[in-house]
Write a structure and sequence with these properties.
Elements (H helix, E strand, L loop, with lengths): L5 E8 L2 H5 L3 E9 L6 E2 L19 E10 L11 H8 L3 E11 L2
Antiparallel strand pairs: 1-2, 1-4, 2-3, 4-5
Amino acid sequence: PDETKTLALIMDDPDAMAAVGKVWVHWLTYHAVDDSTLIQGKTDFGEIGYGGPAPPDGRHTYVFKAYALDTLLNLKDGYSKQELEDAMKDHTIAQTKLSGTFAP
């Protein structure tokens, strides 16, 4: 939408719940629409940046959730999923979701 100031993305694996007891975060990122610099969060691998599919027990579905926000975010590299969700609260003006399945 025209009023978008920030685009954010969360990639996670809800199928990890059975293997590790939680939804596994593979990627957190955002950027202002007038600046393509990605500000990335910490994954559940303990790293900043993209952590690709790595199912521990067979076939898993990965979910990419993209958000258009009406505000600029001020999070620094290494933020958590909770920090991103808290910063986005009440600022999402559009969102979409893409799911893909991967099996080793």
